[in-house]
């Protein structure tokens, strides 16, 4: 009765007490660990051995079992795969489409979607696939495959496929597990094979991603694909005709749809200004961006990279499963592992082939002896099976073989048909033996020179499958794009000086200048206080504003001239200073900070320009000289917190500007040192001339653009093709190689010098498909061209080419073809 009551009250009985069960927290922890391990090992992260996730491996295994050379419906492949995969058909279909879109392992037929546009594939019952020849060569070798039971125990499936290729690096992978993720970017097929060969030869290798969508990539911080690295990718944008940009290649993982949407959103937010966007994508990508009249193409291109999906950034994270646990590796470690595994698999295949050849040679020899020596006649008198086998064995004893003869060998001899014996050709049999011996010797040679054999095997892959798999993504480095240079200045800055308000919604107040919504504004008040603050619609910054402007902390050539009166002593001080390092919204003081101090004169001059002012003292001041002049050039430039020099101890009535002078940064003899990139007043490197801060310098960069700037003591990058002082009329002659047309072109144009520090692209039509070969500003330039007359390369010639005969056009012109022959080198000709 007592036990019955316990059962009714929910007791577990004497064998299952509640106290025997683990706490709920431990149970959940154990379940979570089991689930996390399952997702990491069985779903999201690929194995290092073959570079495949389990679902991909099962798909390829199922396709191999039903492969007959013809296309199979994807729905049929999905059904076959479900025998091995414990999940539904949707995940299998998605994985098959992903493999097919990479165009490496399977041949596809039908609408498989488009990675470039984001269009999805048709339903599985409409599309077809079969194994590609490349897959059959690198994926399968049943005799050396490790097998395991499927999830339900009914079938055998490969634990890993014997992949003889760095497949993981070729395809790339992305997966998110529980508390773990992996992202390996795809690499170029040809470069992987060449790198594998170089690795076997002991040469250094370098690998960088290559994307099916093309575009540009900056892999400066790739970090060999490890965690913490970064790859920046950009669309390929070219200027066409007037006011039209064409996007011909898109960044990795972007689509034409997402790209256009991001451009339209940036336009709606006022980040960029364009007329419209037209998508002409068909076989090739073509997105046309039509600009407004007068818009510079280079500025809009920079804005597209800065504010839209035309530029993206990806963080690689090479994580794989090795020895049943996740490990983080580099792409070079992955390549080294793949090459070592390929070598090992090829060795195993050679050993199997060697054993098979030995067996063929062994039995062919037995058969030859058995028939030629007519041993089959000796067994006619045998009355028992044992006696028959013993008779054959006795007659074979005088001969040596690579292994002992066993009963199975004797049985095979007895199964030779009479027709084969009667038609036996000894000469032909000997030829077969010779061929087998030659084949065996070759196999043994390969085993003895395994590294050379592996190199030859990789070379064969490259020869058979490398065509059409050239690099699509151009590797380059991206210069930082200054945000302020590309921001659309769609706001107008206004000021109410007396009441102390600034902003872009103070309509009817004093207009200062155009600005963008990210600009900082510097405000200086009459009491000597100043502050740098972010632009707003309406902001109170203090009454009696005497100076307001957009602030640029990179403006190292702007100097402030100020005269102020100290409130405590009445003494007037004068000083010159710069405003560089600041804290936003912090109030600074130009004066000594005493109550009653005030600024009586202030000017902000660019490029170190100075001025002369006339000082009028108060009529009641106790001095006979009530008017004098002061030149700010007599002051040295000091910090903004310095007191300054005493100008006068008498009360100032008025300060009048008499006139502006030149820069106080005196002209000096400047030299350019190409090894350090420094422009300095010392005799080292190339003499530029005697220059001051307002004198302009022309810089032509090897990447294919030029800009006009004023000199700075900051180092200049070592990518300079030409540096020299700018002349009033500066003519440039440029020779470049067009990768698309595979020929040399020459163009001549006048340097545009209207905007300082603005990049002018030398190759507007195809900016990323051209390589700058030579640039000169000589008035009478001549070239020495070295070229080949025929394809044999035996007839080499050189001529002197006068560039003066090339018409001078605008920078937008493509230029003239330099020669119809194959040019090998171009040099400047110095008479």
Properties at a glance:
831 residues, five-stranded mixed β-sheet, alpha+beta, disordered N terminus
Description:
The chain has 18 helices and 48 strands. It is α+β, with helices and mostly antiparallel strands and 831 residues long.
Helix-and-strand structural type: alpha+beta
User: What's the total number of strands?
Assistant: 48
State the helical fraction: 25-40%
Strand content: 25-35%
Low-confidence stretches: 1-14
**What is the mean pLDDT?**
85
Largest sheet: 5 strands, mixed
**How far is the N terminus from the C terminus?**
123 Å
Please state the CA-atom Rg, rounded to the nearest Å. Answer: 41 Å
Helix count, per DSSP?
18
Overall body shape: elongated
Would you spell out the secondary-structure blueprint of this structure?
Elements: H1 2-8, H2 24-44, H3 54-65, E1 72-73, H4 74-81, H5 89-101, E2 106-109, E3 128-131, H6 133-138, E4 146-149, E5 156-160, H7 167-171, E6 173-176, E7 181-184, H8 189-200, E8 216-218, E9 231-234, E10 236-240, E11 244-249, H9 256-268, E12 276-279, E13 287-290, H10 297-307, E14 311-314, E15 319-322, E16 325-328, H11 331-372, H12 375-378, H13 385-396, H14 407-414, H15 418-422, H16 426-448, H17 450-465, E17 474-475, H18 483-486, E18 491-496, E19 501-503, E20 510-515, E21 520-525, E22 529-534, E23 539-540, E24 545-551, E25 559-565, E26 572-577, E27 588-589, E28 598-605, E29 609-617, E30 627-631, E31 637-638, E32 645-648, E33 652-663, E34 668-673, E35 678-680, E36 686-691, E37 696-701, E38 705-710, E39 720-725, E40 731-738, E41 743-750, E42 760-761, E43 770-776, E44 782-788, E45 796-802, E46 808-809, E47 816-817, E48 822-828
Parallel strand pairs: 8-17, 26-31, 41-46
Antiparallel strand pairs: 1-3, 2-3, 4-5, 6-7, 8-9, 9-14, 10-11, 11-13, 12-13, 15-16, 18-19, 18-20, 19-23, 21-22, 21-24, 22-27, 25-26, 25-28, 26-32, 29-30, 29-33, 34-35, 34-36, 37-38, 37-39, 38-42, 40-41, 40-43, 41-47, 44-45, 44-48
Helix pairs in contact: 3-4, 4-5, 8-17, 11-16
């Amino acid at each position: 009765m007592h036990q019955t009551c316990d059962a009714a009250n929910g007791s577990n009985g004497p064998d299952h007490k509640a106290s025997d069960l683990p706490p709920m927290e431990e149970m959940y922890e154990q379940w979570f660990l089991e689930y996390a391990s399952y997702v990491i090992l069985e779903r999201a992260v690929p194995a290092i051995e073959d570079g495949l996730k389990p679902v991909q491996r099962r798909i390829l295994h199922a396709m191999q079992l039903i492969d007959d050379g013809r296309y199979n419906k994807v729905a049929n492949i999905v059904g076959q795969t479900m025998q091995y995969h414990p999940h539904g058909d949707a995940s299998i279909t998605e994985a098959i489409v992903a493999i097919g879109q990479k165009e490496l392992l399977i041949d596809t037929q039908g609408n498989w979607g488009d990675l470039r546009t984001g269009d999805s594939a048709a339903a599985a019952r409409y599309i077809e696939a079969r194994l590609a020849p490349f897959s059959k060569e690198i994926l399968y070798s049943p005799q050396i495959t490790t097998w395991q039971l499927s999830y339900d125990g009914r079938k055998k499936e490969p634990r890993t496929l014997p992949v003889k290729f760095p497949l993981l690096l070729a395809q790339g992978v992305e997966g998110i597990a529980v508390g773990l993720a992996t992202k390996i970017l795809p690499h170029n097929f040809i470069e992987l094979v060449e790198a594998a060969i170089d690795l076997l030869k002991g040469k250094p290798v370098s690998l960088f991603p290559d994307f099916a969508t093309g575009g540009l990539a900056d892999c400066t911080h790739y970090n060999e694909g490890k965690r913490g690295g970064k790859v920046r990718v950009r669309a390929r944008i070219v200027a066409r005709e007037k006011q039209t940009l064409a996007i011909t290649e898109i960044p990795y993982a972007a689509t034409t749809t997402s790209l256009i949407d991001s451009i339209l959103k940036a336009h709606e937010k006022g980040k960029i200004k364009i007329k419209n966007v037209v998508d002409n994508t068909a076989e090739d990508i073509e997105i046309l961006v039509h600009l407004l009249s007068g818009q510079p193409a280079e500025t809009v291109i920079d804005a597209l990279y800065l504010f839209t999906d035309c530029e993206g950034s990806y963080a690689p994270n090479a994580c794989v499963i090795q020895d049943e646990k996740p490990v983080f590796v580099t792409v070079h470690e992955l390549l080294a592992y793949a090459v070592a595994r390929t070598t090992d698999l090829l060795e195993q295949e050679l050993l199997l082939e060697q054993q098979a050849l030995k067996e063929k040679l062994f039995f062919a020899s037995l058969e030859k002896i058995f028939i030629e020596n007519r041993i089959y006649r000796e067994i006619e008198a045998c009355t028992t099976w044992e006696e028959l086998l013993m008779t054959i064995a006795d007659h074979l004893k005088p001969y040596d073989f690579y292994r002992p003869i066993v009963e199975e060998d004797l049985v095979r001899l007895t199964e030779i048909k009479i027709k084969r014996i009667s038609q036996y050709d000894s000469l032909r049999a000997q030829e077969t033996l010779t061929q087998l011996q030659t084949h065996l010797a070759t196999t043994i040679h390969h085993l003895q020179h395994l590294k050379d054999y592996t190199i030859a095997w990789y070379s064969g892959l490259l020869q058979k499958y490398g065509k059409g798999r050239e690099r699509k993504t151009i590797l380059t480095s991206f210069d930082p794009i200054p945000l302020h240079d590309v921001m659309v200045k769609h706001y107008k800055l206004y000021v109410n000086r007396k009441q102390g308000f600034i902003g872009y919604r103070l309509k009817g107040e004093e207009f200062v200048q155009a600005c963008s919504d990210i600009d900082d504004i510097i405000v200086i008040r009459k009491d000597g206080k100043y502050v740098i603050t972010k632009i707003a619609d309406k902001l109170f910054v203090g009454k009696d504003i005497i100076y307001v402007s957009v602030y640029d902390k990179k403006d190292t050539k702007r100097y402030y001239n100020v005269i102020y009166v100290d409130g405590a002593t009445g003494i007037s001080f004068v000083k010159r200073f710069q405003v560089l390092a600041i804290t936003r919204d912090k109030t600074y003081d130009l004066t000594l900070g005493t109550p009653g101090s005030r600024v009586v004169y202030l000017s902000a001059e660019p490029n170190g320009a100075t001025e002369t002012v006339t000082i009028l003292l108060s009529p009641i001041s106790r001095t006979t000289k009530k008017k004098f002049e002061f030149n700010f050039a007599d002051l040295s430039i000091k910090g903004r917190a310095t007191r300054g020099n005493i100008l006068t101890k008498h009360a100032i009535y008025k300060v009048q500007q008499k006139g502006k002078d030149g820069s106080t940064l005196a002209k000096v003899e400047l030299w350019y040192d190409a090894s350090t990139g420094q422009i300095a007043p010392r005799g080292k490197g190339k003499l530029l001339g005697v220059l001051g801060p307002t004198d302009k310098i022309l810089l032509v960069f090897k990447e294919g653009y030029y800009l006009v700037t004023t000199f700075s003591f900051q180092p200049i990058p070592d990518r300079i093709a030409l540096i020299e002082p700018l002349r009033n009329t500066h003519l440039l002659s440029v020779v470049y190689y067009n990768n698309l047309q595979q020929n040399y072109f020459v163009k001549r144009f006048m340097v545009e010098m209207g905007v300082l520090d603005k990049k002018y692209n030398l190759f507007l039509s195809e900016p990323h498909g051209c390589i700058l070969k030579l640039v000169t500003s000589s008035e009478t330039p001549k070239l020495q061209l070295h070229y080949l007359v025929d394809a044999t390369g035996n007839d080499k010639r050189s001529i002197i080419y006068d560039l003066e005969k090339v018409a001078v056009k605008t920078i937008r012109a493509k230029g003239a073809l330099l020669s119809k022959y194959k040019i090998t080198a171009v040099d400047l000709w110095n008479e």
